[in-house]
UniProtKB/TrEMBL annotation:
Domain ABC transporter as annotated: residue spans: 5-252
Alphabetical list of Gene3D superfamilies matching this protein: P-loop containing nucleotide triphosphate hydrolases
Entry keywords, A to Z: ATP-binding, Cell membrane, Membrane, Nucleotide-binding, Transport
One term of GO molecular function: ATP binding
Record family assignment: Belongs to the ABC transporter superfamily.
Lineage of the species this protein comes from: Bacteria, Bacillati, Bacillota, Clostridia, Lachnospirales
Location(s) in or outside the cell: Cell membrane
Full protein name: ABC transporter ATP-binding protein
Topology in membrane: Peripheral membrane protein
Length: 260
């Protein structure tokens, strides 16, 4: 296995706040799930946005590299980054469901994305879309395709957004708290399906979460961040069972079912 993504000494500043991310260093192997865990303000969303070249206005990369299959995304020009991003890397946010176009039916948005990114006929795309909706535990996928976003609950819209992202079969899926807004049972189902889908398509997933419990259920490797600093990095087993850093131990102690 070789890394699909390498973060080397990455440091990111905002104008009023230097070092929102400081010297981050980790590698994501092709086909694995890597979780970045940290509390609010640790810099994990900023780190993910940087990989996609979408740091909020004012923010800037002060140093380091973001290597995607060996090419430094920091150095590529706009056009080169656009090509990688559009086809190879997709991102879902905690509130991706809110970004669906309110004036168009789910089906038409879903199929348009598939047409843009994937080979195949409309009929094939439709079949795959329905299957993915069902896998994400959305009852009656046919009706979902016929619905406008306002006819669905927030949790349903979020699962639709995740279904769309997964259907595009990106090589690398960046996921920022993708299940945090869902209720706990649904969250577990969705996590399970994400694990299946990544296996089926050989997808690599980089997930950002405040919940070390979610990370322990999904991830092959875990990075723990606090105040922009990487506190711990290792395999799931190392981090969950033999945490070296006090802060990791503190996060673990807050998840009762992991203590045992
Ligand atoms: N556009 C911005 N300008 C200035 N500071 C920002 C900006 N966005 C975020 N920050 C600050 O950078 C720090 C890290 O934010 P970031 O969103 O990356 O953290 P996070 O760990 O993802 O937290 P959360 O879970 O709350 O999003 C925070 O202290 C935040 O206030």
């Amino acid at each position: 296995m070789k890394p699909i993504l390498e973060i080397q000494d990455l440091t990111i500043d905002y104008p009023e706040r230097a070092g929102v991310v400081r010297n981050a260093n980790f590698a994501v192997q092709s086909g694995e799930i890597m979780a970045v865990v940290g509390e609010s303000g640790s810099g994990k969303s900023t780190l993910l946005s940087a990989i996609l070249g979408l740091i909020p206005a004012g923010g800037a990369i002060r140093g380091g590299k973001i290597l995607y299959n060996g090419s430094d995304l920091v150095k590529l020009n706009r056009e080169e980054v656009r090509l990688i991003r559009g086809r190879k890397i997709a991102m879902v946010f905690q509130n991706s469901g809110e970004y669906l176009n309110p004036r168009r039916k789910i089906g038409s948005q879903y199929l348009e994305m598939m047409k843009y990114h994937l080979p195949g006929t409309k009929r094939e795309h439709r079949g795959r879309a329905l299957e993915m909706l069902e896998r994400l535990h959305l009852a009656n996928p046919d009706r979902i395709m016929q619905s406008y976003p306002f006819e669905l609950s927030g949790g349903m819209k979020q699962r639709v957004a995740l279904a769309i992202a997964l259907s595009l079969e990106p090589k690398l899926l960046l996921a920022d708290e993708p299940t945090s807004a869902l209720d706990v049972t649904v969250q577990a189902q969705v996590v399970r399906e994400m694990l299946q889908v990544r296996k089926q398509f050989g997808m690599t997933i980089l997930i950002v979460t405040h919940n070390i419990g979610v990370a322990s259920r999904m991830a092959d490797h875990i990075v723990v961040m606090k105040n922009g600093e990487q506190r711990e990095y290792g395999t799931r087993q190392q981090v969950i069972e033999h945490p070296q850093n006090e802060y990791t131990r503190y996060l673990l102690s807050a998840v009762p079912e992991l203590e045992a």
